[in-house]
Amino acid sequence: MRLQVTQENLSRALNAVARVATTRNALPILANVLLKTVDNRLVVAATNLDVAITETIGAKVTEPGALTVPARLMQDFVASLPGGTVDLSTDDFKLNLSLDQYTSTINGVPADEYPVMPALQAGKTIKLDNTVLKQALQQTVFAASSDDSRPVLTGVYMHTLEGSIYLAATDSYRLAERKLVASKDLAQLIIPASSLQDVLRILSDHSDTQTTITFDEQQVRFQIGDVEIITRLIDGNYPDYRKLLPKKFAVTALVSKTELTSITKIASLFAREAAGSIQIKISEKDKSLGVRSVASQLGENNSEIKGQVTGTGTVTLNSRYLLDALGVARGDKVEFCMNGKLEPCIIRDPDQSGYAQVVMPVKS
Fold first, then answer.
1. Can you list the pairs that 343-347 forms with residues at least 24 positions away whose Cβ atoms lie under 8 Å?
2. Mean pLDDT: which of 58-72, 122-136, 288-302, 346-360 is highest?
3. How many Cα atoms within 13 Å fall on the side-chain side of residue 273?
4. Cβ contact 168:176 at 8 Å
5. Structural domains for the chain
6. Less packed terminus of the chain by CB within 10 Å, N or C?
7. pLDDT for residue 297 is more than 80
8. What is the pTM of this model?
9. Residues 6+ apart with CB under 8 A from 180
């Protein structure tokens, strides 16, 4: 194999794919990244058998070929090079790299020992603007569980409901739901949240294009520009989370997102010894939303903001969950909705329909 490629393109491709290469696997070769020529382009790919990421970049290919090399070393080395054209060539199972006065040789492993990259030839397809998909993932992925004892909750549920595609994620303590686009195609897939974090990273560099999502019963593929991500789906039935969503609310407060975030952060400082528990008090008489927290050894905190209030009530929440919900709200105001002390609370953006955060109360 002999070719030339720009340092910028090669570094970007390695940053995109190398993250899934892992040393924590029974197959040592999975810590490598695959380099292979296809026509006059260079394919850079990596997999951990559950997810595979491939990016194709332009190159000047003199001799075709393929080789795998340690992902971390290759990524760090290329990132350290100055801008310019990098010469790559193979000698047996060694990769030679040179740019100006920089010359290195990296020991590799034959490409035919690398696992076959997953492929998805056919399936249902959805196209989304990258800005829409990026925002939707930012507003849902964080709510997925990190506890492997319930695998379905470690994923994001992508499904069709009333003629539209929705994303939903929950860890049993909080829930995020986001409406995407109208679609007549039926969809019911649970996508690993860890794979969607990889999709989010790629989307950050591709804000001006569309993503094509293709899926079957076992895999889903995200095509983002020249980057392809294929991941296995999580097998199982997602819980009927919509039963958690109240239809009406006895108490609502429309307040400034910035002000609510500020008083919640302050309250969380005093809530550390109480596992982050804070009390929300909404008063229709005072047209206010108050946050109270107590630290028996340190003191207590009471803060209050004004807003448009209907009804009166109190509820105890985990401050981190509330801050996470506020952190992904897009508007200047948020609406805090509740019924009773043990009923789910909803935080939503009045200017963004089709999106809601549910936070379960803490028993106090």
1. 343/246, 343/315, 344/175, 344/244, 344/245, 344/246, 345/280, 345/315, 345/317, 346/245, 346/246, 346/249, 347/322
2. 58-72
3. 8
4. yes
5. 2-113 (3.10.150.10), 124-241 (3.10.150.10), 245-359 (3.10.150.10)
6. C
7. no
8. 0.91
9. 128, 132, 133, 136, 164, 165, 166, 167
